[in-house]
């Protein structure tokens, strides 16, 4: 697998985020022996596996998994609902947070939104002081 430039940054950022999220393992692979391959990425947690499947390459699968982990989540810094674009955060009713808690609609409406973005090889919370 030959990955270079911004693709490498994206892959490293995804792996870093998945590690920071408390995953016990992370795997990237493909489903078909013959091209075109359908790539997947998954992160294993205690009792749960989160995956992103059916992507055209390993970088796309890892990036999709990172975005899936962030979307609908709460920022560990400010407690705000994570937004990945200027359209705002996504709220999933009845969702269970990574720590096992629930985030109600009322709580989500009362909380700030925290815009996360990827800069090079790392994802950053908008509320956090960014270190070079």
Give a structural overview.
The protein is of the alpha+beta class. It has two domains: 1-70, Double Stranded RNA Binding Domain (2-Layer Sandwich), CATH 3.30.160; 73-132, no CATH class. The chain has three helices and seven strands. Strand 4, helix 3 (105-110) and strand 5 form a beta-alpha-beta unit. The two termini are 29 Å apart.
Write the layout of secondary structure elements.
Blueprint: H1 5-20, E1 25-30, E2 39-45, E3 48-55, H2 58-70, E4 81-83, H3 105-110, E5 113-115, E6 117-119, E7 122-124
Write a concise keyword list for the protein shown above.
alpha+beta, 3 helices, globular, 132 residues, two-stranded parallel sheet, three-stranded antiparallel beta sheet
